[in-house]
Amino acid sequence: MRRFVGIVFGIATQLLFLITVWYLFWFLKEDFSHHAIGSLGIDALLAIQFAVGHSLLLYPGIRTAITRRIPSQFYGSLFCVQTCVGILLTAFCWRSSPVEIWNLSGWGGWLMTAGFYGSWLTLLYSLNLTGLGYQTGLTQWWYWLRKQPLPRRDFQPRSLYCCLRHPVYLSFMGLLWFTPLMTLDRAVLTGIWTAYIFVGSYLKDERLSFYIGKPYRDYQSRVPGYPFIFFGPLGKRKTKVTPVKSLEKTPLQTT
To answer: Which stretches of the chain score pLDDT less than 70?
Structure first.
């Protein structure tokens, strides 16, 4: 019975992911402006709930607590479900605003639309570089289904990851900003999720440094988090050098 539930949950998760991508595409493209007019405060709460829930599940302590209660192979699927539910809740409950910040037509509108589609292509390509199946929980679930151990993932940056550390986040930011129509409610979503992207980038760097260690810290010292950021935690990070203490002054410890 537990295996049957695991099979159904894995399949349902992937179907939910595909549905969410479909709704997110149309919501960000034009549907946000077709919702009933409502409170910007509701929109802000909807945008925040996704950011908070998305970050909490990635926290190492929370991840450890969850995997004590469910098989670790299902953590990726659970994370995917939380992400999808947060996005769908935002898309279905959104309230529009008649106030327009910009409404571009002609070449301006075409360029914004091209940037939107280009951001989707770059997002899918970036996810594929790190393993799209790992992002949705499909890979972990597939190995569980076949009763095989999950292969070890080596840290080997390639392609876009040799130029910046967060191409997925940068592509997602493009989905928010590249729009011919920027209304006040869309600006609330764009502002909150852009701020979350930068905070999330820092948290991801810290998380990967925790799990990977020195190889990732060396990677941070070579590759910036984003283009044109030359300082701070999202620029190139200086590797801390731990001074070697003299053996004559430090007593040897044995275990």
So the answer is: 239-255
